[in-house]
């Protein structure tokens, strides 16, 4: 029988993360201090992050060791399956070979624990008592909530208000894992109060929630640190475990992707899968087409400018050189809350500028159409964020049908949509707008 799942043993979990910074053809522009506009030093980041994460953020080493305590937790769900989507191929009548890396098998239902676990671990090792963070759809918030529970930390989550209202079960999951969840903008911080004064009905944004979480950490008197779920170098590095596993699994499949696809909000999911493959290319190995897919309502890579900007709305974070729509941009209230971010990872932005990856923006109804097609053939309901990757994978497979080419397509199924069924209900009811 033809093989569908390509599985690694727990003994094959990668023991290092991959840092693409070591292979970039052009170095990243430095982060700038929000006050002085001078290049950030490691000491400048100490109010936000523990020393080990700061070292990883500035590291140019190609491989960074994964602590044994982190691997012990990873073993609960890693290695994640690589699946050949044979039923989808048949339904599309395409000669393409479609694979997906299923990150929805984690306890939180997405790829986000890949970085939440090490971030909580390093903070615990540094004597931190409490972590603050933001979340959009709730995938990151639920992941950090669980990670904090594993390592005995208090977790405070500022959840974008529109998602707080749309996704009560995701909020319930965070609270089950022990976190406190606050709708952002809130009255708890200066940034939140200013936003509410300007617009009492503000739906919130990831940038604003970041402002609140950063403010809460900085004003904690040293008892709390801040944890970020995407964008920064160390986060993408932690997520590289996805692509490192996929490289081994594609060997088991006796195949290699011509096209690698991922949804892109801040860049961690797309980067986690694509960067190890692009690293092979940068070091003289096989080339791939890497496609980052974003919502047309928040088209950071396709329509944003490549310039220095704040990572948050209030201007409290360092400035990074990235593709941005402007730190005051408030995206429409689409269901893919995890992709409603004004900026893009500096690494992903740099690779886009150097033409190592393509960017594609798609409307949400086309994404949900693809998500339903995938669910009805593969039996997995994708998260709204993941439907962006599904859409592009289907489109590329249909292009192969037109051309008669048998290309290999690999995409990241970044999470399942079991906590997002209201979005599908709205889609079937015709309530979603582009």
Automatic annotation (TrEMBL):
State one Pfam family annotation: PALP
Q: Give UniProt keywords alphabetically.
A: Amino-acid biosynthesis, Aromatic amino acid biosynthesis, Lyase, Pyridoxal phosphate, Tryptophan biosynthesis
> Per its Swiss-Prot or TrEMBL entry, what cofactor is needed?
pyridoxal 5'-phosphate
Q: Which residues carry this modification: N6-(pyridoxal phosphate)lysine?
A: 112
Per the UniProt entry, the Enzyme Commission number(s) are 4.2.1.20
SUPFAM superfamilies in UniProt = Tryptophan synthase beta subunit-like PLP-dependent enzymes
PROSITE patterns to which the protein is assigned, alphabetical: TRP_SYNTHASE_BETA
Which residue ranges does the record assign to the Tryptophan synthase beta chain-like PALP domain?
Answer: 75-415
Catalyzed reactions = (1S,2R)-1-C-(indol-3-yl)glycerol 3-phosphate + L-serine = D-glyceraldehyde 3-phosphate + L-tryptophan + H2O
Q: Pathway it belongs to?
A: Amino-acid biosynthesis; L-tryptophan biosynthesis; L-tryptophan from chorismate: step 5/5
Q: Which InterPro entries match?
A: Trp_synth_b-like, Trp_synth_b_CS, Trp_synth_beta/beta-like, TrpB-like_PALP, TrpB-like_PALP_sf
Q: Output the superkingdom of the source species.
A: Bacteria
Q: Does the keyword Amino-acid biosynthesis apply?
A: yes
Q: Which Gene3D superfamilies match?
A: 3.40.50.1100
Role according to the record: The beta subunit is responsible for the synthesis of L-tryptophan from indole and L-serine.
**Subunit (UniProt):** Tetramer of two alpha and two beta chains.
Name used for this protein in its record = Tryptophan synthase beta chain
This chain's source organism reads Streptomyces xanthochromogenes
């Amino acid at each position: 029988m033809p093989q569908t799942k390509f599985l690694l043993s727990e003994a094959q979990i990668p023991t290092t993360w991959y840092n693409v910074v070591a292979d970039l053809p052009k170095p990243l522009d430095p982060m700038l201090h929000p006050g002085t506009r001078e290049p950030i030093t490691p000491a400048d980041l100490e109010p936000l992050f523990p020393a080990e994460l700061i070292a990883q953020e500035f590291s140019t080493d190609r491989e960074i060791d994964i602590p044994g305590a982190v691997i012990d937790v990873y073993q609960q769900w890693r290695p994640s399956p690589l699946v050949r989507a044979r039923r989808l191929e048949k339904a599309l009548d395409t000669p393409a070979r479609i694979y997906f890396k299923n990150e929805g098998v984690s306890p939180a239902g997405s790829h986000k624990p890949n970085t939440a676990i090490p971030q909580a671990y390093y903070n615990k090792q540094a004597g931190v008592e409490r972590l603050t963070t933001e979340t959009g759809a709730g995938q990151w918030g639920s992941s950090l909530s669980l990670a904090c529970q594993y390592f005995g930390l208090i977790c405070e989550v500022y959840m974008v208000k529109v998602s707080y209202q749309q996704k009560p079960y995701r909020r319930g999951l965070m609270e089950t894992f022990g976190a406190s969840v606050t709708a952002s903008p809130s009255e708890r911080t200066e940034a939140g109060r200013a936003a509410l004064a300007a617009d009492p009905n503000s739906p919130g944004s990831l940038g604003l929630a970041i402002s609140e979480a950063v403010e809460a950490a900085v004003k904690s008197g040293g008892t709390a640190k801040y944890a970020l779920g995407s964008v920064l170098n160390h986060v993408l590095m932690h997520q590289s475990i996805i692509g490192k596993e996929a490289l081994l699994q594609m060997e088991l499949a006796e195949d290699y992707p011509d096209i690698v696809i991922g949804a892109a909000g801040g860049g961690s999911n797309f980067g986690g899968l694509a960067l190890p493959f692009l690293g092979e290319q940068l070091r003289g190995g096989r080339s791939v087409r890497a496609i980052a897919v974003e919502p047309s309502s928040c088209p950071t890579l396709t329509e944003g400018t490549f310039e220095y900007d704040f990572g948050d709305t209030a201007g409290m974070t360092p400035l990074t050189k990235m593709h941005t729509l402007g730190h005051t941009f408030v995206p429409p209230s689409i269901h893919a809350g995890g992709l409603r971010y004004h900026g893009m990872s500096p690494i992903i932005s740099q690779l886009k500028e150097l033409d190592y990856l393509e960017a594609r923006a798609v409307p949400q109804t086309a994404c949900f159409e693809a998500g339903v097609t995938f669910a009805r053939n593969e039996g997995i309901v994708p998260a709204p964020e993941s439907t962006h990757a599904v859409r592009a994978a289907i489109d590329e497979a249909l292009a192969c049908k037109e051309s008669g080419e048998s290309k290999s397509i690999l995409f990241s199924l970044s999470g399942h949509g079991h906590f997002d069924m209201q979005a599908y209900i709205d889609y079937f009811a015709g309530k979603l707008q582009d």
